[in-house]
Design a protein that fits this description.
8 strands; mainly beta; SH3 type barrels
Length: 82
């Protein structure tokens, strides 16, 4: 079993293009308490301080592998909001 706090400390990487997707901002949880999606903040920073761009919602079904330091997800490049 994986704690939410452990998931937020891992890097999310897209297996389609190898890019880091950004840190966890929020999670969508259904009425049964199961995680249905992970909301990621944009990875780019403005002036090294503030993140800009739209959040990326990754459905739980798109998470391919959860490793010790990294979570691999499969998101098509057109789904990425930069």
């Amino acid at each position: 079993m994986l704690k939410v706090s452990e998931l937020t400390r891992r890097d999310f990487v897209n297996v389609v293009d190898g890019r880091r997707l950004g840190p966890v901002k929020d999670m969508h949880i259904d009425e049964k308490g199961m995680v249905t999606a992970v909301v990621l903040q944009p990875g780019k920073k403005h002036l090294g301080l503030f993140r800009f761009g739209r959040d990326l919602v990754v459905p739980w079904s798109r998470i391919k592998r959860i490793g010790v330091d990294t979570v691999l997800v499969e998101v098509a490049s057109w789904e990425r909001a930069d």
